[in-house]
Amino acid sequence: MTQQQSPVWFITGCSTGFGKELARLVLARGWRAVVTARNPDQLKELVSGKEKDALAVQLDVTNRAQIAQAVQQAEKKFGQINVLVNNAGYGYIAAIEEGEEDQVRAMFETNFFGLVDLTKAVLPGMRKRRSGHIVNFSSIGGLVSFAATGYYHATKYAVEGLSESLSIEGAPLGIKVLIVEPGPFRTDWAGRSLLESKIVIDDYASTAGERRRQTHERSGRQQGDPARAAEAIIEAVSSENPPLHLLLGKLALELGYKKLEAMKKDFEAWRQTTIGADYPEFQDAK
């Protein structure tokens, strides 16, 4: 594969974690990459000596002007974007009642609306070429909910729903979608990137409070390896039949199956009540 034929990956949130490991691996394969971060100084190590194949761009996904400029720079240097990886995002710890509106809205701006805006900026080029792959980072927290992270879950459930619809709309146009759903990994999610509500209500000590404590305690000791996750993502994107959902890590798989079983149990237990909500003439229809 020549340099001009190699795929162009556009990756957000490359200063640490999944984004950094994915960018490193893409470039190591001799592919081309647009690596982005709010602070471009944090990208120097990634692109050093690889200036022909790498483009470092300052990008805050909540800034639409920066999004437009970043996509323009990418297309000017490489002519196209083949794979968009919407990785930028962060977490927020709070019981629902403890949630601070400004913090919650800010997280939605990054985790959801930033993803939407960048996706919409890249889609015209993919439509024109009738080819492309959009990789949206959700989380096992986009499928399964826990105490203290309800607002974070809400952003990821939103990413799940949007991504599934996009996969249907994009399929006839040659545009594929991959939803990445990691379990606990040794990234900065539970470390410096994690925000917490300043409001603490004692009545939630055994639920949200306990989850806060456990989250801090486990930070840096998670079982997931970001480098191996990057390998898995590349494998999925490069597959002839890529999945729509990609769980990452054993715990994510276990939690995903548990959620499916719980939902099926509810569906079956309330089957007759569910069907009974239709007009009678439709209740026996096949």
Q: Please, could you describe this protein's structure?
A:
By secondary structure, this protein is of the alpha/beta class. The protein has two domains: 8-248, 3-Layer(aba) Sandwich (Rossmann fold); 251-286. It is 48% helix and 14% strand. The protein is built from ten helices and nine strands. It has helices spanning 17-28, 44-47, 64-78, 101-129, 150-170, 205-218, 226-238, 250-269, 271-275, 280-283; strands at residues 8-11, 32-37, 54-58, 83-86, 92-93, 132-137, 175-182, 195-196, 245-248. The strands form two sheets. Strands 3-2-1-4-6-7-9 form a seven-stranded parallel sheet, sandwiched between helices. Strands 5-8 form a two-stranded parallel sheet. α5 links the parallel β6 and β7 (175-182). The longest helix has 29 residues, at 101-129. The N and C termini lie far apart (52 Å).
Question: What is this structure, in a nutshell?
Answer:
The protein is an alpha/beta fold and 286 residues long. It has ten helices and nine strands.
Distance between the termini: 52 Å
The averaged pLDDT comes out at 94
CATH topology of the largest domain: Rossmann fold
Output the radius of gyration.
Answer: 20 Å
> Under the CATH scheme, which architecture of the largest domain would be assigned?
3-Layer(aba) Sandwich
Characterize the overall form: globular
In total, the number of strands is 9
Sketch the topology as an H/E string, one letter per element: EHEHEHEEHEHEEHHEHHH
Look at the structure and name the CATH superfamily of the largest domain: NAD(P)-binding Rossmann-like Domain
Helix content: 40-55%
* Main β-sheet description: 7 strands, parallel
Total of DSSP H or I helical runs spanning 4+ residues:
10
